[in-house]
Alpha/beta hydrolase
Amino acid sequence: MASPRFPDDSATLTLPGPAGALEVAVDAADAEAKPRPLVAIVCHPLPTEGGTMHNKVVTMVARSLRELGATTVRFNFRGTGASEGTFDHGRGERDDLRAVAAWVREQRPGDTLWLAGFSFGAYVSLLAAEELDPAMLISIAPPAGRWDFDVVPMPTMPWLVVQGENDEIVDPQAVYDWLDKGDAKAELVRMPDTSHFFHRKLIDLRGAIKHGVRQYLPAAND
């Protein structure tokens, strides 16, 4: 399968991946925002628990970045939606992310690359961050305590972590302890009265993301 051209407008397309075809959704910057030379890849939560690129937290993260002028790329990990293959506990999913990032960099060589992920997607993007070296990393409810975070190198790039304090799936204290243990340089946003899926808190999440990343945005295109 040949790699498709990066679309000028929003589109869903199929990309060759390491385990077969990957379903990818590209969305252009918001019409009211000044476009920036920035592509942000957003990774979705655990496929075995219903996570897809259409998850409401994933789509809100992407929307927040598009409102700042970024182009966003969401994709379904192997075995999810129209993506081929089977679930691989983070290892194969990291390879999927590598393939998507390689395509973005090949197609948009002049653009800055950011990585973002929610829950399992945060874990996968953290696994790949050292190799892919994005200019910005965004981790929403990283599942410390549920996955092996001992194998995750502490990121050195600008890094925003957002954690709900009433998360019923990821133990917030496990996240805080992991960040403290690794002497992380993350900007940590603790959201009070907030569950794992940010029920009734999505607008607050949007604000936290925009506030946390604004200083790292590349200049808008002329």
